[in-house]
Amino acid sequence: MQTNNPLICIVGPTACGKTHLAVHLAYLLNAEIISADSRQVYKHMDIGTGKDLNEYIVNGTAVAYHLIDIVEAGYQYNVFEYQRDFYKAYKKISANNHLAICCGGSGMYVEAILKAYRLEKVPVDNEFRKQCIHKSDEELAEELAQYRALHNVSDTSDRNRLIRALEIETYYSSHSDASEHITYDYKIFYVDIERERLRANIAKRLEERLQNGMVDEVDRLLSQGISAENLKYYGLEYKYITLYLNHELSYTAMKNQLCIAIGQFAKRQQTWFNRMRRSGFEMVMVPYELTLQEKINLIISHLR
Predict the structure, then answer these.
(1) Mean pLDDT of all residues in 153-157
(2) How far apart are CA 286 and CA 47, in angstroms?
(3) Are 32 and 66 in contact (CB under 8 A)?
(4) The pairing of beta strand 65-66 with beta strand 283-287
(5) What is the pTM (predicted TM-score) of this model?
(6) Among residues 29, 84, 103, 134, which is most buried (max CB within 10 A)?
(7) pLDDT by residue (tens digit) across 51-74?
């Protein structure tokens, strides 16, 4: 177990300006960014995931980033792989004698790092899965709840994910933890944005992304052989645009439903971070209304 490893976290809901803030802070502190976004790990999924890689250049200088474009689209990356990859990226940054800034809105990923969730690849247990066939989703969820609090609704909204989550917890209950962990001396900064402003940002950004070729991006992924079901698995932009391209939604319906879905997603992100605060994670509130320089000054004052 390693300790006393400095880590700055910039978190908040989608469309609150986290990346812009984190990159400019990294530029000033000679730091490197580790993304905490569950979809930016995928290659060729650029516009829909909001990678905005041009953001990582400040005054002509490229700010180093990690855990973006690391797996192929179509793959189903998970939190355990993220924890493993984050650990590798952090060690690489430390070897460069740089600070690390974790930036993103995937609360589960951030929490998995800070709480050192158990990191271990769990093999598929076909016999266990056979035993689950005749159980209802409610029964499976009740069993999973005996192992841990069900904060992640995605584990219970999809039957395959539910069975896999229960499979993992069952495995852990009967096997000792042999994984390597690292704990961090961290400081969390939460970009606090008012609900109406967030909704306006989401609508504006969605319109820009649609104008900049987001539909074409999804169409290319489908033409490359990634199934519609796989794309819908990634949710939000990829789900609704796939429905539009398959003539299951009109363009207007796709756009309207997608905007609502992104707003609901942002609310879930806020709920996750609020729960983290209630459970004991200290977070410094960074008001969205502040200028970039004011935000940076606020963060640096707390780091000192």
Answers:
(1) 49
(2) 26
(3) yes
(4) unpaired
(5) 0.83
(6) 103
(7) 999 999 999 999 999 999 999 999
Q: How far apart are CA 304 and CA 287, in angstroms?
A: 19
Q: Can you spell out the DSSP letters for 174-237?
A: HS------EEEEEEEEEEE--HHHHHHHHHHHHHHHHHTTHHHHHHHHHHTT--HHHHHHT-HH
Give the pLDDT of residue 168: 85
Buried b (16+ CB within 10 A) or exposed e, 163-178: bbbbbbbbeeeeeeee
Residue 3: is its pLDDT beyond 60?
no
Q: Which residue's entry shows tokens 């879930």? A: 268
Question: Can you tell me which residue has the tokens 């689950």?
Answer: 132
Structure tokens at 219: 């169409």
Amino acid making up residue 301: S
Q: Which CATH superfamily is domain 2-118+179-303 in?
A: P-loop containing nucleotide triphosphate hydrolases (3.40.50.300)
DSSP codes of every residue in 102-150: EEES-HHHHHHHHTT----PPPP-HHHHHHHTTS-HHHHHHHHHTTS--
pLDDT per position as a tens digit, 102-115:
999 999 999 999 98
- Pick the range with the lowest mean pLDDT from 31-45, 141-155, 212-226, 251-265: 141-155
Domain ranges of the chain: 2-118+179-303, 126-174
